[in-house]
Amino acid sequence: MQIAEEAVQGAANAMQSAKRVLVVSHIRPDGDAIGSLLGLGLALEAAGKQVQMVSEDGVPAGCRRLEGAGRVLHRPEGEFDLVCVVDCSDLERTGSTLLGRGQPDLNIDHHVTNLLFARHNLVEAGAVATAEIIFDLLPAFQLSLSTPVASALLTGLITDTIGFRTSNMTPRAMRLAATLMEAGADLPQLYLDALAHRSYAAVRLWGAGLSRVEQQDGLVWTVLTLQDRQATRYPGRDDADLINILGAVDGAEIAIIFLEQPDGRVKVSWRARPGLDVSQLAVRFGGGGHPAAAGAEIKGSLSDVEKMILEQTRPLLEINGGNRVQQ
Ligand code: 5GP
Ligand code: MN
User: 3-state DSSP call for residue 164?
Assistant: First the structure.
């Protein structure tokens, strides 16, 4: 682990003296958000802490069979000695959960764009998932790796690497997966739950997005409207991972999804082939992420944001050259 020893010690001391702990993750949660939330939350509970685990947008279907998923709250209740934010590169990512609660105590994350917003910032951009960092912190925090904790962490690892195939994969992450399996995590089942199984509504939403997919000069993109969500009865505020399908299109150097939001905003997701970096582009629009996968929420109409972001993304391809999709 690259995180400075003093930062880990400071965080461990703060954790040790806390009785009531709030663990929070990000809006539109993915498997690493929930896996990290449950992994840390359940381990702290087993160590005798009073723990609340909060995810403003609930738990996505692929994580609902994880132990503790049913106890995740939409908002915190009461007071806490320690607030810990996981898998968030900035505080806006926690939605309204922490409004009025001051500066969080711990920030555990793997985004290169992390703003180091907490008292103790345990940020390691080389980790493939926040779940990997949480595993590394268990000994320092004097926490144990039970089967439910291992299952939650393995879900984070599987989903953030899209089944161990993202360009940031490391031998270390493969070894960690083996360690988590040895602790009782059921890799095939977790993989099916979190990555393979899809609801009927989700594939209908894909259909709506795929029916109007476009490609030009190495860019592949589509839009998802509020009307699509209504028509397909998709319950989430997310893209049902359609972005990962666009990113797999032959010749897609950068894939983008524009997801209309109810509040006059558009959620933009980028995926880039290895060698390109979309994280700084996302930061420019108030978002963040990783070199190969980033996102931002931008004010404006769907068509305005689409036009503006396509314009702003194209120079990245021009700078880097490379193969273009043939029209
Ligand atoms: P996705 O496009 O799947 O929502 O997210 C891709 C990556 O970018 C994830 O690591 C996610 O945490 C990050 N990300 C997505 N949207 C935002 C955003 O609005 N703000 C920040 N800071 N990060 C984001
Ligand atoms: Mn993550």
Answer: coil
The three-state secondary structure class of 257 is strand
Q: For residue 271, list its beta bridge partners.
A: 255, 293
What are φ and ψ of residue 231, in 5° steps?
-65, -35
Concatenating the DSSP letter of every residue in 21-46 gives EEEE--SS--HHHHHHHHHHHHHHHH
> Apex CA 209: angle with CA 300 and CA 191, to 5°?
110
Residue 319 backbone phi and psi in degrees, to 5: -65, -40
- The residue with tokens 């461990």 is 12
What is the C-alpha to C-alpha distance for residues 97 and 25, in angstroms, rounded to an integer?
9
CA separation for the pair 272, 294 (Å, rounded) = 9
Residue 42 exposure: Cα atoms within 13 Å on the Cβ side? 25
Q: Say how many Å lie between the CA of residue 3 and the centre of ligand 2.
A: 17
pLDDT of 326 = 40
Please choose, from the candidates 241, 251, 63, the residue with its C-alpha nearest in 3D space to the C-alpha of residue 162. 241
The pairing of beta strand 82-86 with beta strand 106-109: parallel
- As for ligand 1, residues whose beta carbon falls within 6 Å of it are 89-90, 93, 111, 243, 269, 287-290, 293-297
Q: Give the residues of the chain that fall short of pLDDT 50.
A: 323-327
| Distance from C-alpha of 184 to C-alpha of 204, rounded to nearest angstrom | 35
The pLDDT score that the predictor gives to residue 2 is 86
